[in-house]
Amino acid sequence: MCLWHTPRFSAVGKSERRELRSRMAVLLAHLLKWQYQACFRSKSWQRAIKEQRRGIAGCLKETPSLKTDLTQPDWREWVWSDAVSLAVKETGLDCFPESCPWDIEQVMDSEFWPE
């Protein structure tokens, strides 16, 4: 029996995937807010974006196999939907793009701040 197919490892994989998805959705929602509500930009938003980027990088470092999720179109659509829902809830705006306008390299780039 392969150790990786035991329930303990399957549950860990699921929780890691959930964490990655959640962190990415929060990051994307904050980037949307940054772009669409420029007048509300603050140090706390910058910290939240930086924190999510660090958290995602940590997830990917601990579990490199999660990097394949980032390239899956279905996964990206699912995360984008979560991000837009969060952004709508937090801003009251409903003007966000149908699909993510940024690639993963931009999203994770510490120098990237959408205008």
Question: What structural keywords apply?
Answer:
single chain; 115 residues; mainly alpha; 5 helices; 0% strand; disordered N terminus
Describe this protein's structure:
It comes from Methylotuvimicrobium buryatense (Methylomicrobium buryatense). 68% of the residues lie in helices and 0% in strands. The N terminus is likely disordered. The chain has one domain. The protein has 115 residues and is mostly helical.
List the helices and strands and how they pair.
Blueprint: H1 7-36, H2 43-62, H3 67-70, H4 73-91, H5 104-108
Helix pairs in contact: 1-2, 1-4
Protein name: DUF29 domain-containing protein
InterPro entries: DUF29
The largest sheet, given as strand count, sense and whether it forms a barrel, is: none
- Helix share of residues? 55-70%
Number of separate structural domains: 1
In terms of structural class, how would the helical and strand content be classed?
Answer: mainly alpha
Give the count of helical stretches.
5
Quaternary class: single chain
Distance between the termini: 52 Å
User: What number is the mean pLDDT?
Assistant: 90
Radius of gyration: 15 Å
- Give the percentage of residues in beta strands: under 5%
Q: What general outline do the C-alpha atoms trace?
A: globular
Order of H and E elements: HHHHH
How many beta-strand runs?
Answer: 0
Low-confidence stretches: 1-10
